[in-house]
Amino acid sequence: MNQKRVLSVFFIFVMLFLVCSVFAEESLFDASYTCLEEQLGNNCGGTKNVEQAAFNLLAIGYDSGLQSDCRSLLNGMKNGNCWGDTDGGVCKIKPTAQVTLALNHVGEDVDNNVNWLLDKRIKDTGLVWYLEIDANNQTKCEINGKDITIQEDKKIVGADPSGLKKAYNGYWFEITDINKNFTISCDMDFITTLLYKKPVGDVYYVSSETQSASAYDSVVETVNAYCFGESSKCNYEASLWAVFALAKIEEDISSYIPYLSAMSDESSNKNYLPDAFLYTLTGADDYYSRLVNEQKQNKYWDESNNKLYDTSVALLALQGLSIDEAENAKEYLLDIRESSNCWSSHTSLILYSGWPKNPYISSGGGEGIQECQSYGYFCTSIGECNLANRVDNFICTSLSDVCCEIEPYEESCSEKGGLICAGDEECSGSEVIASDVMDCCLGDCEEIEEESYCTDVEGYVCQNSCSDEQEEKSFYYCDFGDVCCADKPKSGRSWWIIILLIVLIILVILAIIFRNQLKIWMFRGKSKFKSGSGPQSTGGRPFGPGMPPANFRRPEQVMTRRHIPQRRINPRREERDKDFEDTMKKLREISK
């Protein structure tokens, strides 16, 4: 009986602890929402920055009064059906897309804004496109009335149809005219697909759509790919936000994915955190793995040297997922707030990304709009809900979610070809989310090598980050996402060596510059001039201007040392001074 009471008390204690933890976290970010409300006042913060005003509306949409202020501010910045970077600025794609997302979130009609965005589409994305035709056996085909043959080895024989040319050693056609439609018919069952790649590189992407037809039936292949940009030039960051906005309002975005995916690994585009957008738009495991692996120190994202912005964008994609990367990022953000409970910048975006609230929908602005899950539907990621299953006039809290009539089917880890690693194992490859586990390993499960704890080593400490005077010791681990830091080794001795080397180099340079002067000084020192007398030889050979050095030997005049006659040179002082003056004169002429 006593044991049952102890277990009951323990269970109650655990439940109370969990409830208190939840309320504690809520109070933490609620304090930040209070700070934001104070910052916005009655004019949405009075900002002239359109992006900031859009993020303010997203975050504060739960409050009818503050929402109305932000909507009024944004509508006042409007330039026709679009927005610029600042109030009164020239219309641009990115801010227009961001405002479209925010206004749609609070139930406002954005059809005119969407039409403006669609007018900014560009078909020439710069990608190289290919057409592949395949059949089980050799087949004769017709492309726009031009006959070709697909041989047994899949190689193409025949003249190139207009708009196509043989490529990839004759196994594919390169599409040279992306505006043409290609009608294809064969005398056997066949399939067709499109492939594409960047102009530079050998990575080929296969289109998600493959067409098939029976013998003598036909299919039509055409390049259906777009980007967004001004002046007929694609803008990658603008395209990310524009496609995000279109996906949120139930537009078909399949024609934009080729450009976004192929150009995502460009170094200049990494700053925009494309994997966050692509995971939201497609739900593909590859983008999820890349996104979580880009997190720094298990705390934040920092691709553009703006941790707060990048971490917020990543959290937008991970909203609703109970994974360590998202929870660690939110804990990190709460820890670095200022005393006001706001952040140094991007407070609105941070709050909406990490702790979003349901928007208030006015009866006039969003008539008939209801909360998705309250009607038995499902808020799912944009990429997980087929366009045909989308439900109109229902909202979800997360910007990356849409209301779906059917709950998407999530494959199990085994269905994805993955493994569930044990507690003492780690995954050698990427980890993805499955229906039965949050960390499905797509590699091998390997035994974890034992690591040394940081503070077991004298002088090593666990900290949030290492200072300029410290260096990170990655081999040692810390708890709670901290890093192991140790003082950098002292380098005083090496500085003395460097200084000494510099001094020696300077002396050598001076010796080269004043080498003639040094010869004269050496001559004077070795000759040991005295007043009225010449130098006395001690049996060695005299050395002076115009005479060979002591180690110089003339051919056929080699004698042993005992036969060398002792010589004495007694030049007069006047002759010596004349020679010295002549030498100095030459030196002065050289130095001019």
Give a short summary of the structure.
By secondary structure, the protein is of the alpha+beta class.
What would the principal axes of the Cα set say about the shape?
globular
Query: Biggest sheet: strands side by side, in what order?
Result: 6-7-2-9-10
Into which percentage range does the β-strand content fall? Answer: 15-25%
Low-confidence stretches: 13-24, 527-576
How many separate helices?
15
Helix amount: 25-40%
Mean pLDDT: 83
Detailed description of the structure:
It is a single chain. The chain has 592 residues and is of the alpha+beta class. Among the domains are: 128-224, no CATH class; 373-404; 410-447, no CATH class; 450-492, no CATH class. Helices cover 35% and strands 16% of the residues. It has 15 helices and 25 strands. It has helices at 2-40, 50-60, 64-77, 93-105, 111-118, 236-248, 257-262, 274-282, 285-293, 307-318, 324-335, 347-354, 492-513, 515-527, 573-591; strands spanning 121-122, 128-134, 139-143, 146-150, 156-157, 164-167, 172-175, 181-186, 190-197, 205-213, 218-222, 227-228, 370-371, 378-381, 394-395, 401-404, 425-427, 431-432, 440-441, 445-447, 452-453, 461-463, 470-472, 476-477, 483-487. Strands 6-7-2-9-10 form a five-stranded antiparallel sheet, with no helix packed on it. The protein has a five-stranded antiparallel sheet with strand order 5-4-3-8-11, with no helix packed on it. Strand 9 (190-197) and strand 10 (205-213) form a beta hairpin. Helix 10 (307-318) runs antiparallel to helix 11 and helix 10 (307-318) packs parallel to helix 12. The protein is globular and about 95 Å long. The termini are far apart. Residues 13-24 and 527-576 have low confidence and may be disordered.
